[in-house]
Design a protein that fits this description.
299 residues, TIM Barrel, 8-stranded parallel β-sheet, two-stranded antiparallel sheet, 10 helices
Length: 299
């Protein structure tokens, strides 16, 4: 009887694990479901403006190093692309266009990022990849000139990049990189940012949930006009607040991501489905990314 009971408990544990949603991920190995479709943008209407879509993105997309204070993601750029992420927030220094998070070098450069994206888009030509370049120290005033030089000198990148301010239709940018403006970086489309100064500072998870809800509502209103692509963040940190190190990016994401999944699931049931623009996340799991992608058929 004891053996039977142990077997039953084991089966129940397996069932519980299989029923859990993978909304948070801090493992560096990507395990895609067998039925996962990497080229998820294939079915999008070519005539749709990209500002009328809901797009999964990552905040500080290549912040893979620096411990709990700096690390915001677990997957490499290549794996994030395969997992469905289509917007990448990059902090780029004027020194060799290296990728940074704060003072921490992230072991790669924008040139390597572009090479990886080029490989991906050559294989998955229905997809669109949005890159937001935020110039950071040192020599951040050099960033735009260096990026423009790369675009001029690389025929593929020159032919497969959208650097205009106007919002393109999907059909205009399939297989291309869409650059996004950020303050001193003036290449690409402008964003309607829902986050205000200081919104990334978090002392209470519930307060962050309320802010995300508010931001997504603002994004949904903006999406109806299609005049600009919205950007909202689910990420945050307690660093710099009285909470100090008690809600660093990973810990916050572990609590926020399940809530965000549930919130989006509720929103998905509305008719017509809303659109939210870009949702930039920390440590998203496959199921959370797929939940964002499900809004692609919003009308």
């Amino acid at each position: 009887m004891g053996v039977h009971w142990k077997i039953l408990c084991f089966l129940m544990l397996l069932l519980h694990k299989s029923s859990q949603q993978e909304v948070f991920n801090d493992k560096n190995t990507l395990n895609l479901p067998a039925n996962d479709k990497i080229g998820w943008m294939e079915t999008l209407d070519d005539d749709k403006l990209i500002s009328t879509l809901t797009i999964p993105g990552t905040h500080d997309a290549l912040a893979l190093y620096g411990g709990p204070f700096a690390k915001c993601q677990a997957w490499s750029l290549e794996d994030q692309l395969k997992a469905g992420i289509r917007y990448f927030d990059l902090r780029v220094s004027g020194i060799e266009l290296i990728i940074m998070h704060g003072w921490i070098y992230q072991g790669t450069s924008l040139s390597k990022v572009l090479a990886t994206v080029k490989t991906f888009l050559t294989q998955f030509r229905t997809e669109v990849v949005l890159l937001r370049v935020k110039p950071v120290f040192l020599m951040k005033k050099k960033v735009q000139d260096l990026v423009e030089k790369i675009i001029r000198n690389d025929i593929w990148i020159s032919e497969h990049s959208w650097v205009k301010e106007s919002i393109p239709k999907i059909g205009e940018v399939r297989g291309k990189i869409v650059f996004v403006q950020k303050n001193t970086f003036k290449l690409g489309i402008k964003l309607f940012e829902t986050d205000k100064k200081g919104d990334h500072e978090v002392t209470k998870v519930k307060d962050k949930e309320k802010k995300i809800t508010q931001h997504l509502n603002e994004a949904a209103d903006q999406c109806k006009t299609g005049s600009a692509l919205s950007l909202s963040y689910s990420s945050g940190t307690s660093l710099g607040t009285w909470k100090l190190v008690f809600l660093l990016p990973k810990k916050l994401a572990k609590e926020i991501n399940p809530w965000l999944y549930g919130h989006l699931k509720t929103e998905l049931g509305k008719k017509p489905k809303p659109c939210f623009g870009i949702i930039a996340m920390d440590f998203p799991g496959i199921d959370l990314i797929q939940m964002v992608i499900k809004f692609k058929k919003a009308t």
